[in-house]
Amino acid sequence: MATSKKSAGLKTVRPSGSADENFFSWVYEVVRQIPRGRVTSYGAIAACLGTKLSARMVGWAMNGAGRVRPKVPAHRVVNRLGILSGKHHFATPDEMERLLKKEGIRIKNDKIIDFDKVFWDPVKELT
Questions:
Q1: How would you class 36 by CB atoms within 10 Å of its CB: exposed for 0-12, middle for 13-18, buried for 19 or more?
Q2: 36 is a domain residue
Q3: Which residues constitute the domain of residue 38?
Q4: What is the pTM of this model?
Q5: Phi (first) and psi of residue 107, to 5 degrees
């Protein structure tokens, strides 16, 4: 890992092999590392975990993220087009958008403006 990544406090996701770790916990670990003001996609998380075809499983994990501690910033995970596809799983339909806007992300019609500029790729950042 490059020095700049270490100084940013990022760490590589590696399963410990302990009996209590599972796919969802690995997803949550990746999501906790998304910096404020950045977003990633379900598919990018799946690719980072070596399961490129498991984007829907990442979505299932994110569906339950609100009950997980330590907190998981689920609002930073969107679909591959930058659409707030998970917004209906928040307490209110506009909560996801509100949280993203609070971090400086611009949104129009449930889609992130300049998605490519705020996209955080865990494959590049964590491996």
A1: exposed
A2: yes
A3: 22-119
A4: 0.83
A5: -135, 140
